[in-house]
Design brief:
alpha/beta, Rossmann fold, 7-stranded parallel sheet, two-stranded antiparallel sheet, 9 helices, about 15% strand, binds nicotinamide-adenine-dinucleotide, binds magnesium ion
């Protein structure tokens, strides 16, 4: 893609500039009389506007649920960039929708931070899922693949049981899987489609959370992926937006129940992020071309740009954050 090439050139030019600036700023410093030895590599400043491909993006369509490996440009889930520092050493995580997109970025980051990770996904996504399993194992952690449909209550219960059995416990639950189908009119939404959206985005969290609470210890963390759609719904996402508002209420209510029990519940609210969900019916084709172009950062976000938020919300270090929604929307949307 022409646009991408020029972006890449600008990116490289900026990287060079960033190195010079960063060398001045991030040399070892004396803080409170103690010498702080950081990474020997100086941090490279990155301009978030030019960091990733900008619109226009090529039109593309895949059958649901879509594969990250077939997207153009390929999404960045942090495969080459995420560096861990032991923040989740020995933790045990279950991530729904961990095969691709935002869930894959969280899975890679968790493994590199020292956690064992189970991922759930639909059987049609085996190819994407196997790439993630390999990456978790390359990080030296245990990886568990549990394909299955979370619109099925019994499967949700089995998913948690299998995770606990294979990881030897569970202390991070990431409810991230989601179904989004664009419809320009409420009149076009069939009962079946409405039901699939509600079951995937609301019921599954209810079933999986109830099953997980039988196992989650004090200090555990639950994270739900909500959306800017919860706050400012698009006309074409009438049913989906309602489920994402429900996810905010899930976080706000459940955190009040579980706070006294020592379990934190938080949410992540992404804006437009370059993932399969958007190219397999989640978005109108004309909107896809300029996806994220109307945000102050003028482009779609990449899954890798959200990974550290999922780490922060799971980490013991974030222990006073519960009932919160952390946003990453390129400067648009809420919260
Ligand atoms: P994605 O397509 O990579 O991930 C969604 C995943 O949901 C799929 O990989 C699939 O494994 C899973 N899934 C869907 N239906 C399922 C079912 N019935 N059973 C089991 N798994 C099922 O896309 P993504 O954008 O990374 O989506 C992750 C979350 O982010 C979703 O909750 C979505 O609503 C939310 N979100 C995405 C955006 C965005 O712009 N991409 C913006 C805001 C919120
Ligand atoms: Mg997927």
């Amino acid at each position: 893609m022409k646009q991408e090439t020029s972006n890449m050139n600008r990116r490289n030019a900026l990287k060079g500039l960033g190195t010079t600036v960063a060398t001045l700023v991030v040399a070892p410093t004396i803080a409170g009389g103690t010498k702080v030895e950081g990474d020997s590599q100086p941090a490279v400043l990155e301009n978030p506007v030019n960091k990733y491909p900008q619109p226009p993006y090529p039109k593309q369509k895949q059958p649901h649920p879509g594969l990250a490996s077939k997207m153009d440009p390929l999404p960045d889930h942090g495969e080459k960039s995420y560096k861990g520092s032991g923040r989740l050493q020995g933790r045990k995580a279950l991530i729904t929708g961990g095969d691709s997109g935002i869930g894959r970025a969280a899975a890679i980051a968790y493994a590199r931070e020292g956690a064992d990770v189970a991922i759930n996904y639909l059987p049609a996504e085996e190819e994407d899922a196997q790439q993630v399993i390999k990456l978790i194992e390359q990080a030296g952690r245990k990886a568990v693949a549990i394909p299955g449909d979370i619109t099925d209550k019994e499967f949700c219960q089995k998913l948690v049981e299998k995770t606990v059995a294979q990881l030897g416990g569970l202390d991070i639950l990431v409810n991230n899987a989601g179904y989004q189908k664009s419809n320009l009119s409420i009149m076009d939404i069939s009962d079946e489609s409405f039901d699939a959206t509600m079951k995937t985005n609301i019921y599954a969290l209810f079933w999986i959370t109830k099953a997980a609470l039988l196992h989650l210890p004090e200090g555990a963390s639950i994270i739900a992926t909500t959306s800017v759609q919860a706050y400012d719904p698009s006309e074409n996402l009438f049913d989906y937006a309602q489920t994402k508002a429900a996810n905010v209420a899930y976080v706000k209510s459940l955190s009040k129940q579980l706070g006294p029990k020592g379990i934190r519940v938080n949410g992540v609210s992404p804006g437009p992020v370059w993932t399969p969900l958007q190219v397999c019916g989640g978005q109108e084709q004309d909107k896809l071309e300029n996806f994220g172009g109307d945000t102050p950062l003028q482009r779609a976000g990449q899954p890798a740009e959200l990974a550290s938020i999922f780490v922060q919300l799971a980490d013991n270090g974030g222990s006073y954050a519960t009932g919160q929604i952390y946003g990453a929307a390129g400067g648009g949307g809420h919260p």
